[in-house]
Amino acid sequence: xxxxxxxxxxxxxxxxxxxxxxxxxxxxxxxxxxxxxxxxxxxxxxxxxxxxxxxxxxxxxxxxxxxxxxxxxxxxxxxxxxxxxxxxxxxxxxxxxxxxxxxxxxxxxxxxxxxxxxxxxxxxxxxxxxxxxxxxxxxxxxxxxxxxxxxxxxxxxxxxxxxxxxxxxxxxxxxxxxxxxxxxxxxxxxxxxxxxxxxxxxxxxxxxxxxxxxxxxxxxxxxxxxxxxxxxxxxxxxxxxxxxxxxxxxxxxxxxxxxxxxxxxxxxxxxxxxxxxxxxxxxxxxxxxxxxxxxxxxxxxxxxxxxxxxxxxxxxxxxxxxxxxxxxxxxxxxxxxxxxxxxxxxxxxxxxxxxxxxxxxxxxxxxxxxxxxxxxxxxxxxxxxxxxxxxxxxxxxxxxxxxxxxxxxxxxxxxxxxxxxxxxxxxxxxxxxxxxxxxxxxxxxxxxxxxxxxxxxxxxxxxxxxxxxxxxxxx
Length: 475
Prior knowledge:
Layout lengths: L12 H20 L13 H7 L10 H12 L21 H13 L10 H17 L7 E5 L2 H16 L7 E6 L4 H9 L7 E4 L9 H13 L3 E8 L11 H11 L2 E6 L23 E4 L1 H4 L7 E5 L2 H8 L29 H11 L1 H23 L4 E5 L5 E6 L7 H17 L6 E5 L2 E7 L7 H20 L1
Parallel strand pairs: 2-3, 2-4, 4-5, 5-6
Antiparallel strand pairs: 1-7, 6-7, 8-9, 9-11, 10-11
């Protein structure tokens, strides 16, 4: 045998060092210029997408041209989700320590699915989950799971509730959630065997919160029909308007009726980390399970979700399994494979652990509290703009509004004007807004939840809304 070793996929230490430096330089330059990047990017790229289709390359390419293509051509053609002006949907951000953690996790490539394979590393993940538990004021004995996002967290919560209250009698089970709940609740229910005809959509009140009287009536009707109400999924901050359901009252109903209470806190639960803001989420610690999205309220990269379950044994009972090729199970330490559906997994806990270790809880609390303060200030300013009608004041850090005027006599005209207002502001390239449709009304939304969003950005947002609203109403 002679010639090059085509079977080797190894790089020398000097090559890896050079490649790593090249990637970091491009990434840091990208972040340094994030404020000047177009907030929505160039999305008219159907032809570009077609041009990207290609057969598998037979031979490898150099790194630099790939970085050029990514950073110069492809990444700019997207929403600038880590930018300070990204006030659309539910922002995240992606703090830098999490990127470092992902690099470490991917290069060391340790297996954390089973405790025995990397005990000390799994303990770091267990620590991070316990920190989240403490912020949410869940009791000792609670347990958790890191997931790819809120949808998988909710799915696992429904499994726990289904096993506890339904066993094999799944078909009679009924689940309740509000008409403002995230669509992932219905989807997760279906994946867990609770089909759409057993999911009850409960009407919301004038503040877009689940109506307790309607929930009680629906539960009573299902019991009278011989069905088995087993779970309520409430919201600690809806995506449409940021509404927080009456968590205390729902918890009381679930306790009285023998049902599981799940709280979808993907957007809003991390405000509970701030003691002064906990009254906004009263009742949250009473939940049987709680969806969290650290890629929202902790500003981590996308793909970082979490679930907390009050009765940790219930979470383990749903997922515990073994096989002849696996190590014997142990009870003292947290084991990811015994608390979730995945056996093969990376090391998602490192990004949570490293971010908290590097920033500390105090800085996190300050950053989270700042987002609510900015939203409260901005909502008050926007409400003063002629023609703006506030539909949802910020219960947390999201508010919604629409545009009215003498020439906007119909609902269709108001909807079109509100959509035009969002488009005009977004087209200016500094802040991005998105909307929602509630009961036939199109609302503009502002959601403040990026660690890069500071006071100057919110002042600019308010100014642009005022300017463009005036132009629409007066043109």
